[in-house]
Amino acid sequence: MSIAGVNHLALVCRDMAETTRFYTEVLGMPLIKTVQLPDGGQHFFFDCGGGSSLAFFWWADGPPAAPGIASVKAFPLEARTAVGSMNHIAFSVPEDELETWRQRLVEAGVETFPMVVNHDDSEMGVARKNHEGVFVRSVYFTDPNGIMMELAAFTRPFTPADVRHAPGSARTPAEV
């Protein structure tokens, strides 16, 4: 048995019509399935490529958003979220399209991080300019629900040398 990839990621939106417009018109993700739920809610699926879908639930009386708990409050300064939350979702795009995507988002009125971000292994984790140590380049933005999104392009394949940190733990050694 093996995992073959992500089937879908299910999120919650504040307004299904607004969310559908954003994902179909701004991001170009076709709406592929709609479900009317017995409790009055809805569950819609959008094709995000590679056989994967992004899905949204909506209820008219759903609880409000909780930035800083269930979603990022303010990237990059307040990016921590609670255990069990979804911090952000990253979609793969070709590296040479990153700036075009950023401009498309800006033209659609979507607030984006002001530049393509170059992630590297430096102490800060980012570089002002692209260089051979950059492993992924990204454009960050939020959708109409305040969900943080990333358009990301890996710049090189990963090797065993890229796995060099032990996993952290909140447990004290006596509890392990």
From TrEMBL:
Lineage top rank: taxon: Bacteria
What is the designated name of this protein?
Answer: Glyoxalase
Quote the Gene3D superfamilies the UniProt record gives: 2,3-Dihydroxybiphenyl 1,2-Dioxygenase, domain 1
Against InterPro entries, the record matches this protein to:
Glyas_Bleomycin-R_OHBP_Dase, Glyas_Fos-R_dOase_dom, GlyoxalaseI/FosfomycinResist, VOC_core
Q: Name one Pfam family in it.
A: Glyoxalase
Ranges for domain VOC come to: 5-154
